[in-house]
Amino acid sequence: MNKMIKGALAAGTGVVLLLGGAGTLAYWNAETTVNGGTITAGNLTLTNTGSPTWTDQTGATIDIATFRVVPGDTLTLTQAVTFSATGNNLVGTLSLAGGGVSGDLAAFLSAPGVTMTVPATTGVTCSGATCTVTPGAATVSQTVTVKVAIPFPKTSSPTDQNGAMQKTASLANLTIRLEQNH
Fold this sequence. Notes:
Helix content is 11%, strand content 39%. By secondary structure, the protein is mainly β. The protein has one domain.
């Protein structure tokens, strides 16, 4: 026989064998649908509650637009923020996130001191500058009082502070953040 015919017969036999193997199919089968329910995500929200207030070191309320700070003063910004947190395994931290103090006067001021306080409640604990939020299965909604103290310390040499006269500092970018811990 011709080599070409032998090759064609071998190829044809291989195709028949392959098709024969592919033709075996189990005719019985079964399936079921599982109702897996619905997955719902938790949430974190944070909003200012009311307007900020300012006091000086004596505790007197001041108008920050007209008050003129001098060395030895400590000004305190007080802002209430309300947060809501939902999540069974959620642990979050409420803290001063940045922004801080900027401007020419900032170099003469001490770093802001932050305290946060919250009434006794389940799922929230505050210590100094941070609050830890652990709502569990329920939603925790709470108002927290945030106080940011900005000291303008006196130095041993008053002439060192002459450069601060007529300078300004801004807290326009002060940011309070509620963030999920990883």
